[in-house]
Amino acid sequence: MSASADKDGVKPPPPFYLGENSKRTKDKSPTVSNFSRPSTAGTATSSIVNPFSPPASVISFSVDPTSNASMPIVPAGQQEGLEPVPRHGIMALPRSTSYYGTRPNTGDNPSRTASGIRLRETFAAPPPRPLTAVSTSVSLAPSKTTRMRSTMLEDPTTLDKPWVTTKDPYARIAYLLTYSVAFLGIAASAVRCYFGYKSVPLITGNLCMVLDEDFTSDTDTTFGPNGNWFREVQLGGFGNGEFEMTTSSSNNSYTSDGYLYITPTLTSNMIGSDAVFNGYTYNLTDCTYNVTNPEAYPGSTNTTDFDATAYYQSCGAVSNSTTGAIINPIQSARITTRKSASIRYGRVEVRAKVPRGDWLWPAIWMLPVNNTYGPWPMSGEIDIMESRGNARSYPDQGIDYVRGSLNWGPLSFLNAVSKTFGWWTQRRTDYGEGFHTYALEWTESFLRIYVDTRLHYMLELSFNEPFFSRGDFPSVVQNGSEPIVLQNPWINGTNATPFDQPFYLIINLAVGGTNGWFPDNAGNKPWLDNSPTAMLAFAQAQDTWYPTWGSDGESSSFVVDSVKMWELC
């Protein structure tokens, strides 16, 4: 301190310690120096507070420097016996002035240790507040609280429950009625299922194996003199105006790896494209028309004798660009069991995969060994499976459909197939994706055609009435300008006639045709059935349909895995 200050009687202020209450009286007017706290004269004692100390409402904890024990620290304002001044109405906890010990005798400089502790108390975390009714516990353990009872609920003993004291008679009736109807529905369903099961006709007699072909033999053995299969060789269209010729070549029918393949090929690969359209004569030297089906072609004499006109129409062709006549542009195959196996009532199973490609027409079907009741369709035809190789988008049932039918009628131009046909379809795939079993069950009382299972039947027909009355034919029909009185060709037969004679099996792959199997103006069909140059129009559109057959030759092939035939014996 300076000497002038002592002489004037002015006493310097005591040293300032953090955490201590800086008490000043109104009669004191200290001189402020560079090392002293500014004067607080004129300020109430209760409001003189250390600006570096925490609020009195905060309770902090520190460590006793002497005992290293946790002790409470009281805010400034309670030193030297003065009453603490509450802040904001919150009472501060009392603190002993001896907590920090006595002031060391080091002159005006405070203890470094004590001031450091007091500095830390400013930044200490506040203690947890006491729990209240609206506060939540910080404990991690689940707490159980008593749920307050709602004053809006009535006493359960005072609630009116008339259904407890008085029973509603209609409730019991409704209860019994509901369960009675449910029981009757279940019972009726069971009865219906039982009689439905009993009503399914089945073959009850003994079946004798007639043919069991798995195609494990080579091609020459399968189609040889002692083989089960006979190749029919023709190019006359088989009465359907088909565009293929059937051959005996191993290019079109052969066995491989236990499968039979019927593969269509282009005639231009054999004789050239120009020869197909003009200036070429093509003869099938091994034609079998007159041997296998002498009555089927128009112009024949309906005898088994040699018919020269029908023979030349079915076994040879001449291409002429002037008339639009061409050589059949496709070569394929048609194989039969006519000489090896036939049945009169029984069962047939053929496991096969249909070909894929526009205007391909695979078929598994049966014809009578003898035309007992007259030429086709008077003696009947059984189609176990027919399909189209066109894609699923084809509007008239493409490769995702298979069809079964019966062809029959009293005249060659009057076919009642529309009364006896049906189909089955694949909803997510098609029949060219894999092998399927096409089956026929046939007795004197019923006939069923199905694929894979009896539930997928394409046709199920009971022979419960004669076919002539089933057809509902008119008494007189017109053939051109000549009226014909219709006669019943099956008058001496049974309800199963004409399907009461031995039939043999045929497997073939046709292409196109003019009989309506491929309807006009459907699926970008390139020809019209009534056109005299329908085959020419088909051949000229080769660039549109041939790519759909695939390049490997297998996708367009009709592949057969096995054939089994049983006869009722």
Task: Report helical residue fraction.
Answer: 10-25%
Low-confidence stretches: 2-8, 18-48, 58-82, 95-102, 296-301
What is the makeup of the main sheet?
8 strands, antiparallel
Count of helical regions: 12
The value of Rg in angstroms is: 55 Å
Question: Overall pLDDT, averaged?
Answer: 81
Principal-axes geometry comes out as elongated
Structural class: alpha+beta
> How much β-strand is present in the residues?
15-25%
- β-strand number: 25
Terminal CA distance reads: 144 Å
Write the layout of secondary structure elements.
Blueprint: H1 3-7, E1 60-63, E2 70-73, H2 112-122, H3 162-165, H4 169-199, E3 207-213, H5 219-222, E4 230-231, E5 244-246, E6 253-256, E7 259-262, E8 265-266, H6 268-271, H7 273-277, E9 280-283, H8 289-292, H9 308-315, E10 316-319, E11 330-332, E12 334-336, E13 342-343, E14 346-353, E15 360-368, E16 381-386, E17 401-407, E18 421-425, E19 436-442, E20 446-451, E21 457-462, H10 467-471, E22 476-479, E23 482-485, E24 503-511, H11 534-540, H12 542-545, E25 558-568
Parallel strand pairs: 5-11
Antiparallel strand pairs: 1-2, 3-25, 4-12, 6-7, 7-25, 8-11, 9-10, 12-24, 13-24, 14-19, 14-25, 15-16, 15-24, 16-17, 17-18, 19-20, 20-21, 22-23
